[in-house]
Amino acid sequence: MKTLFFAFMLLLSLPAASARRLRRDSQLIRGSVPRRRLTGLVSYNFKSRRRTPRSDDDPTAMTPIGGNADGLPTCLLCVCLTGSVYCEEVSPDMTSVPALPKESAYLYARFNKIKKINKRDFADTVTLKRIDLTGNLIAEIEEDAFSKLTLLEELSLAENRLTKLPVLPTKLSSFNANRNLLKTKGVKANVFKKLTKLVNLYLADNMLEAVPTIPESVRILHLQNNNITDVTIDTFCKASDNYYLRPSLSEVRLDGNPVVLSKYPDSFTCMKVLPVGRYR
Ligand SMILES: *[C@@H]1O[C@H](CO)[C@@H](O)[C@H](O)[C@H]1NC(C)=O
User: Fold this and answer.
1) CA-CA distance, 79 to 40, in Å (whole number)?
2) Spatial CA neighbour of 149 closest among 170, 168, 126
3) 209 C-alpha to center of ligand 1: Å?
4) Atom 5 in ligand 1: which residue has the minimum CA distance?
5) For the chain, what are the domain ranges?
6) How far is 108 from 38, CA to CA, in rounded Å?
7) pLDDT digits (tens, 9 = 90+) for 133-146
């Protein structure tokens, strides 16, 4: 009886499956599917293939997956390709970091509903080189959640709800926290100081009241649309050293802040280019 029912379900689902494949193929040919859409489609197919037969013998299989994978292995919910895990716009909603396969190097978990990063989330995947959590609802990160990731080079927390930053791993070359709710109070003065490989630092569209300490390696610094009211000689240069130069820094954005840069003519003498911002 069960077998018969299953065969019947299979028959029913076949035309739907092939229609879906057709649609996917035609979209592929047009070559205009944004990658985000495509990943969504692929993971959807993964899921439906897995869940249809299960619904037959496991009555709980059709209940919505609460929180996260909820027992469903990450690589059925997301797409895993040699060291990369793609979990973008996962449905049903993904509200926490999924368990990652060992040896994962790249995690793309953009546009989900992750609210908090826990210390244990990345504890077993010290192989990570890039984490992209853009466009989630992250309001809290446990202080040491990223600090053990000694290979991590790129971290994006853009478009979240952070008011403060945790300890950052020292090998980072790119850090993006654009579009959060960061205040100077929540960004420890030295949070970037030890990041001697940091090249890109994006902190635009926050509520920072001061420029944090910027390591010498930084080339691009985005601080536009914050609430920065002043700078000093020591912000970028050194009051104690007239000969100090900062050749790396080649793009500084301070536009959209209350600070009037022409009031601080001595503050940029060590730089190759003046910051973008208000001069009158
Ligand atoms: C910007 O800073 C000033 C104090 O310098 C404060 O009164 C104001 O509320 C701040 N604005 C925002 C949007 O945080």
Assistant:
1) 9
2) 126
3) 8
4) 229
5) 19-48
6) 14
7) 999 999 999 999 99
